[in-house]
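Hello Y.,

Per our agreement to keep a running log of every chain we model this quarter, I'm adding this entry. I've kept the format consistent with earlier entries: sequence first, then predicted structure.
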Amino acid sequence: MENIIIILIGFIIIEHFIFLYLEMFLWTKKSGRKIFANSIEDANTTKILAANQGLYNGFLAMGLLFGIFYLHTDVKYDIILFFLCCILIAGVFGGLTAKKSILYIQALPAFITIIMIYIL
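Predicted structure for the entry above:
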C-alpha cells in the first residue's frame, strides 16, 4: 500500500476510536456533554444509544485495521474499501439526519481515502 493511503486510513482509525471513547465513556461526563452539546438530562436519556453507536465506531476502526494487516493482498483493498464505504454511508446519513458537521468529520475523510485508493 502507498504510504499516503496508510496515513489516511490511520487517521480514520484513530478518529473512530476517539468516537468510541467519546460515545461510550464520556457521553454523560461534562466534557462529553460539551462536545455533543447535550444537557445532562438528554445525555442520561440517550447514553445507551450513544454507547451502542460508539461500539459500532470501534467495529469500523477494527475492520480497517484488519484490512491493513490482512496478508492476502488480492483482497486487502476490498476489505478496506468495504469499511471505508460503510463509514462514508454512515457519515452521509449522520450528516443529513443528525448534524451537518458529521459530513466533514466522518464522511469526507472516508471519501478522500476511497478516491486516493483508486488514484494511486
